[in-house]
């Protein structure tokens, strides 16, 4: 806004415009302050992971050097990214990736099939089953974990990948999300395919599933975050490094007296990358489909 | 059922014309397929959710130890519950999660709401900021603990430095995790930082759900910005508010990872939480029966909060 433009506009419009301008400025300033608060801890993590000297990291903490690295090195990543060795996080990372992929993969299939049958099936008592699913959602993971630990240890399943994957594949929340998504698709879609003689599975597989990309993306992100960040369950059911996920490995490491901050920071950065990639890949569909249904449901 | 059902359908089919018979066969095939598609979810939910849930009520009424003993497990009724209700540490943990909830609700939800209101405006780069603010929400709580564990360092950690700098040195360094008066509040700070992006997105969706016509109508009626906010935005967000507050409260009562990694319930039990108390009873003291009683109590708390949500939503006619 140049002076010339301002002087030619009527006084009221001019005043309103400058008020809106001031408001925008204040709003932008607020956003930038919030952004600073949100991003600076993450930025500090990234910077610290690039420093090789763990004593230097602690010494830098007290100054603005916490946000600056003069000679960045990837040696921490090389160290923790190994598949073997004392501080090798590569294998825990790999363990976590296996758990993530299997849980989400199986979860998408199992929950979407169930949601589809609840939405379009012809079984009697569908409404009742749906209410049961919604009711089950209230049970927190934390309050079934005690008996579940006894069950899996009696079955000799501790310290396996299976025990970290299978219990969390089917979930009332995701069945319900899929149900809601499928149920809002037009009835004609189902009827037309049925007239053509397609079986239920086929209608699900070739018509409804390809249309449910937003729901698949949402459930992938939510399940992915959940599987990736599991902490309580794996500490209870893993005793050795064999199937231990990275979250537990970092926490164990963190609890020791002499913390290798440099390595801990690098391992933490490595832990963020896969889930960030998953989120960036699917976020386009994430917001719209999840939030609408979650708030109403 | 297996013997009778096919016979019955077969006789029924005989009475029908040929075309009907074909359709009947297809219906039966369809039924089998539907059962087959539903079965994995039903079986998994039964084994890994319903059975342990029912078992937790049973275990809570026995003297079940973690490691099997030669003596048989005995049914002891409500003894475990009585013992827990007499344990001061349990009440401390309940009091602590209540304190946590009391702080996290305004800090986290307030911040999320304010940010959502800001990002709902036509600000430059708002999609970028939206993604940015969600970053902590996808960060594992363990990683968040590593980050904030360094920020909280006493006395020269970054947080203390920033506060000292902003206050011109008049505020003394705070022992964030080591001072019983501050430890829970520190946990609140890092938890709010981690999870608020999620709620911000929920609020943004809620804001987008309010029709523009309502704002236009209010404007024509001469409502100013504050009136539009109070009479259009706030009523339109009622279900969102209820959802966010309830989810946050339930999450708050399940507080565990932050405490387990950073403070182990200390100092002086000031960050002991219900789930941490449960895990300690079950796995360090090896008293699974007692721990199951805690888990039943936790379930009842969550149930009450969820029922409250339904009541509130019904009152608001959603």
UniProtKB/TrEMBL annotation, chain A:
<feature type="domain" description="ABC transmembrane type-1">
    <location>
        <begin position="93"/>
        <end position="282"/>
    </location>
</feature>
<protein>
    <submittedName>
        <fullName>Sugar ABC transporter permease protein</fullName>
    </submittedName>
</protein>
<dbReference type="InterPro" id="IPR000515">
    <property type="entry name" value="MetI-like"/>
</dbReference>
<feature type="transmembrane region" description="Helical">
    <location>
        <begin position="92"/>
        <end position="120"/>
    </location>
</feature>
<dbReference type="GO" id="GO:0005886">
    <property type="term" value="C:plasma membrane"/>
</dbReference>
<feature type="transmembrane region" description="Helical">
    <location>
        <begin position="25"/>
        <end position="48"/>
    </location>
</feature>
<feature type="transmembrane region" description="Helical">
    <location>
        <begin position="203"/>
        <end position="225"/>
    </location>
</feature>
<comment type="similarity">
    <text>Belongs to the binding-protein-dependent transport system permease family.</text>
</comment>
<dbReference type="Pfam" id="PF00528">
    <property type="entry name" value="BPD_transp_1"/>
</dbReference>
<feature type="transmembrane region" description="Helical">
    <location>
        <begin position="127"/>
        <end position="153"/>
    </location>
</feature>
<keyword id="KW-0614">Plasmid</keyword>
<keyword id="KW-1003">Cell membrane</keyword>
<feature type="transmembrane region" description="Helical">
    <location>
        <begin position="264"/>
        <end position="282"/>
    </location>
</feature>
<keyword id="KW-0472">Membrane</keyword>
<dbReference type="GO" id="GO:0055085">
    <property type="term" value="P:transmembrane transport"/>
</dbReference>
<keyword id="KW-0813">Transport</keyword>
<dbReference type="InterPro" id="IPR035906">
    <property type="entry name" value="MetI-like_sf"/>
</dbReference>
<keyword id="KW-0812">Transmembrane</keyword>
<keyword id="KW-1133">Transmembrane helix</keyword>
<feature type="transmembrane region" description="Helical">
    <location>
        <begin position="165"/>
        <end position="182"/>
    </location>
</feature>
UniProtKB/TrEMBL annotation, chain B:
<keyword id="KW-1133">Transmembrane helix</keyword>
<feature type="transmembrane region" description="Helical">
    <location>
        <begin position="35"/>
        <end position="58"/>
    </location>
</feature>
<feature type="transmembrane region" description="Helical">
    <location>
        <begin position="100"/>
        <end position="119"/>
    </location>
</feature>
<keyword id="KW-0813">Transport</keyword>
<dbReference type="InterPro" id="IPR035906">
    <property type="entry name" value="MetI-like_sf"/>
</dbReference>
<dbReference type="InterPro" id="IPR000515">
    <property type="entry name" value="MetI-like"/>
</dbReference>
<keyword id="KW-1003">Cell membrane</keyword>
<feature type="transmembrane region" description="Helical">
    <location>
        <begin position="182"/>
        <end position="205"/>
    </location>
</feature>
<feature type="transmembrane region" description="Helical">
    <location>
        <begin position="288"/>
        <end position="308"/>
    </location>
</feature>
<keyword id="KW-0812">Transmembrane</keyword>
<feature type="transmembrane region" description="Helical">
    <location>
        <begin position="131"/>
        <end position="151"/>
    </location>
</feature>
<keyword id="KW-0614">Plasmid</keyword>
<protein>
    <submittedName>
        <fullName>Sugar ABC transporter permease protein</fullName>
    </submittedName>
</protein>
<comment type="similarity">
    <text>Belongs to the binding-protein-dependent transport system permease family.</text>
</comment>
<dbReference type="InterPro" id="IPR051393">
    <property type="entry name" value="ABC_transporter_permease"/>
</dbReference>
<dbReference type="Pfam" id="PF00528">
    <property type="entry name" value="BPD_transp_1"/>
</dbReference>
<dbReference type="GO" id="GO:0055085">
    <property type="term" value="P:transmembrane transport"/>
</dbReference>
<feature type="domain" description="ABC transmembrane type-1">
    <location>
        <begin position="94"/>
        <end position="309"/>
    </location>
</feature>
<keyword id="KW-0472">Membrane</keyword>
<dbReference type="GO" id="GO:0005886">
    <property type="term" value="C:plasma membrane"/>
</dbReference>
């Amino acid at each position: 806004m140049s002076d010339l433009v301002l002087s030619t506009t009527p006084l009221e419009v001019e005043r309103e415009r400058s008020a809106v301008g001031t408001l925008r400025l204040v709003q932008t300033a607020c956003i930038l302050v919030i952004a600073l608060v949100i991003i600076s801890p993450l930025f500090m993590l990234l910077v610290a992971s690039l420093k090789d000297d763990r004593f230097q990291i602690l010494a830098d903490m007290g100054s603005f050097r916490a946000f600056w690295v003069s000679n960045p090195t990837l040696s921490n990543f090389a160290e923790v990214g190994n598949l073997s060795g004392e501080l090798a996080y590569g294998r825990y990372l790999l363990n976590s990736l296996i758990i993530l992929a299997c849980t989400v993969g199986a979860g998408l299939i199992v929950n979407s099939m169930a949601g589809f049958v609840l939405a379009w099936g012809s079984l009697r008592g569908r409404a009742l089953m749906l209410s049961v699913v919604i009711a089950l959602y209230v049970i927190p993971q934390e309050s079934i974990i005690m008996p579940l630990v006894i069950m899996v240890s009696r079955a000799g399943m501790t310290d396996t990948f299976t025990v970290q994957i299978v219990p969390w594949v089917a979930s009332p929340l995701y069945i319900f999300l899929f149900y809601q998504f499928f149920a809002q698709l037009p009835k004609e879609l189902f009827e037309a395919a049925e007239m053509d003689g397609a079986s239920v599975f086929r209608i699900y597989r070739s018509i409804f599933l390809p249309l449910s990309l937003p729901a698949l993306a949402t459930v992938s992100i939510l399940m992915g975050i959940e599987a990736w960040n599991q902490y309580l369950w794996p500490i209870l059911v893993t005793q050795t490094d064999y199937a231990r996920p990275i979250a537990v490995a970092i926490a164990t490491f963190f609890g020791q007296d002499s913390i290798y901050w440099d390595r801990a920071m690098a391992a933490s950065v490595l832990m963020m990358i896969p889930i960030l990639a998953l989120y960036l890949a699917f976020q386009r569909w994430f917001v719209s489909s999840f939030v609408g249904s979650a708030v109403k449901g | 059922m297996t013997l009778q059902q096919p016979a019955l359908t077969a006789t029924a089919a005989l009475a029908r014309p040929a075309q009907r018979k074909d359709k009947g066969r297809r219906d039966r095939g369809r039924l089998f397929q539907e059962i087959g598609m539903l079965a994995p979810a039903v079986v998994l939910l039964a084994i890994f959710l319903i059975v342990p849930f029912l078992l937790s009520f049973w275990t809570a009424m026995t003297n079940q130890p973690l490691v099997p003993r030669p003596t048989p497990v005995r049914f002891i009724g409500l003894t475990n519950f009585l013992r827990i209700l007499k344990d001061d540490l349990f009440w401390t943990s309940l009091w602590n999660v209540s304190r946590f909830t009391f702080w996290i609700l305004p800090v986290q939800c307030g911040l999320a709401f304010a940010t959502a209101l800001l990002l709902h405006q036509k600000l430059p780069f708002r999609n970028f900021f939206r993604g940015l603010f969600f970053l902590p929400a996808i960060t594992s709580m363990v990683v968040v603990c590593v980050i904030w564990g360094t920020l909280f360092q006493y006395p020269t950690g970054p947080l203390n430095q920033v506060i000292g700098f902003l206050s011109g040195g008049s505020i003394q360094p705070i022992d964030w995790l080591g001072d019983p008066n501050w430890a829970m509040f520190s946990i609140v700070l890092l938890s709010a930082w981690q999870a608020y992006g999620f709620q911000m997105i929920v609020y943004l969706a809620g804001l987008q759900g309010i029709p523009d016509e309502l704002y236009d109508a209010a404007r024509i009626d001469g409502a100013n910005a504050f009136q539009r906010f109070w009479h259009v935005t706030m009523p339109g967000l009622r279900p969102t508010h209820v959802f966010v507050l309830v989810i946050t409260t339930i999450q708050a009562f399940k507080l565990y990872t932050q405490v387990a990694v950073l403070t182990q319930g200390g100092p002086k039990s000031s960050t002991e939480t219900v789930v941490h108390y449960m895990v300690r009873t079950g796995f360090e003291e090896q008293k699974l029966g007692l721990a199951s009683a805690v888990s039943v109590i936790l379930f009842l708390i969550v149930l009450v909060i969820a029922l409250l949500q339904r009541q509130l939503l019904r009152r608001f006619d959603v």
